[in-house]
Amino acid sequence: MNEQEFEKIWRENRRNLLQNDAEWRQLQESYKMSSGADWLLFAIPVVAGIASFNYIPLTSEILKWLVSVAITIVCFALCVWIKTLISGTKSADEIERRIKEEFKESMHNS
Q1: How many domains is the chain partitioned into structurally?
Q2: Tens of pLDDT, residue by residue, the chain (110 residues)
Q3: Which of 12, 28, 65, 79 has a CA positioned 20 to 30 A from the CA of residue 57?
Q4: DSSP-assigned states of every residue in the chain
Q5: Domain range spanning residue 92?
C-alpha cells in the first residue's frame, strides 16, 4: 500500500478512529467548562477588558473600545493556555499523530 492509498483510507476512517480512542475523548471533554476554576479563567478576560476601558489614556471612544477588545482577546488566549497547562493533556495534533501511526502500523501488519 502506498502513501496516497493510506491517506485516502485515513481520511475515510479518521473520525471513527479518533472517537474510539480514550485519550482523544478525554481531550475533547477537557475543552468543556466543568468547574468553577474554568468559569473563573474565562471570566477574567471579560473583567480585564471592562476594567481596562476606563484606564486607557485615549480620547477617541472607538480606539478605547478597540484596545479594550484587544486586551480581552489577549487575556482569553492566556487563559486558554493556562487551562491547557493545568489539564496536562497532550495536544490534539500529538494524539492524532499517534493514532494515525498506530493505524498505519495495523494496516501494514494486515
Answers
A1: 1
A2: 678 888 888 888 888 888 888 888 887 777 676 777 778 888 899 999 999 988 888 888 899 999 999 999 999 999 888 877 777 667 778 888 888 888 888 877 76
A3: 79
A4: --HHHHHHHHHHHHHHHHHT-HHHHHHHHHTS--SHHHHHHHHHHHHHHHHHHTT---S-HHHHHHHHHHHHHHHHHHHHHHHHHHHTPPPHHHHHHHHHHHHHHHHHH-
A5: 3-109
